[in-house]
Amino acid sequence: GRNYRKVMLISPPGKIFVRPDGALGERKHCTPPLGLAYISAGLLARGYEVCVLDALAEGYENEIYDEPFIVYGLPIDVLLQRVEVSAPDVVGISLLFSSRAKEAFEIALAIKDKLPNVKIVMGGQHPSAMPRESLGMAGVDFVLCGEADHTMPDLLDALNGGIDITTVNGLYYYDQNGDIISNDDGKRAIVSGGTYNYYSRKD
After folding, report:
1. Cβ pair 59, 112 in contact under 8 A
2. What is the CA radius of gyration of the chain?
3. Is there a contact between 13 and 79 (Cβ–Cβ < 8 Å)?
4. Best CA proximity match to 140, nearest among 114, 169, 111
């Protein structure tokens, strides 16, 4: 079987609403993807390789008008090049806001088209609230609900045969027959204060 060692975590582009009179409905913002930093720490602690691609921050000045929105971040072709160069075994895409679902699922599909062997995991508030719908989107292999600090490393362990995939809490996936399987019993992991680790780089 394949060895899954290298993970790329992606924070998708930002998006702001443009009102009919041309006024912006909100300001652009650039918040560090702290959730991905926590997940990175969990993966590194188990010996996996991780890189984070913050498409919003890296392409902050790049704006595309997609009526009635302005989308800002790395364009999809540049993002795809970055993924190809990194050559991950697994890609995790963070989708915190439903307003950005279109872009996040476009990223998933584009990566799957280009690199069909890469496993794609969706996480964040939107997939956690709509796991079956999110798993049903083209290109998506897994949905992780709730805090994924520990469950993303668990999923990697399961893909590598270290643990049974049915033990990965909050996971939605397909079985061999193409049926959706849910490990989500509603008891989603809450990472308590004092156990936080996050990954920081100075380069």
Report:
1. no
2. 17
3. no
4. 111
183 Cα distance to chain centroid = 19
- For 160-169, letters b (16+ CB in 10 Å) and e give eeeeebeebb
Q: What is the mean pLDDT of residues 60-72?
A: 94
CA distance 28 to 62: 12
Residue 12 to residues 40, 108, 144, 178, 192, Cα–Cα distance (Å): 16, 10, 17, 28, 26
- The pLDDT value given to residue 2: 80
Scanning the chain, the segments in alpha helix (DSSP H) are 34-45, 55-58, 76-86, 101-114, 125-129, 131-135, 151-159
The single-letter code of the amino acid at 71 is V
Q: What digits encode the pLDDT tens for the residues 178-190? A: 999 999 876 655 5
Closest CA relative to residue 49, chosen from 84, 94, 88: 88
In eight-state DSSP terms, residue 113 is H
Candidates 46, 56, 63, 136; CA nearest to 97 is 56
Residue 150 pLDDT exceeds 50? yes
Rounded CA-CA distance 71/174 in Å is 32
The pTM score is 0.91
- Residue 203 pairs in a beta bridge with none
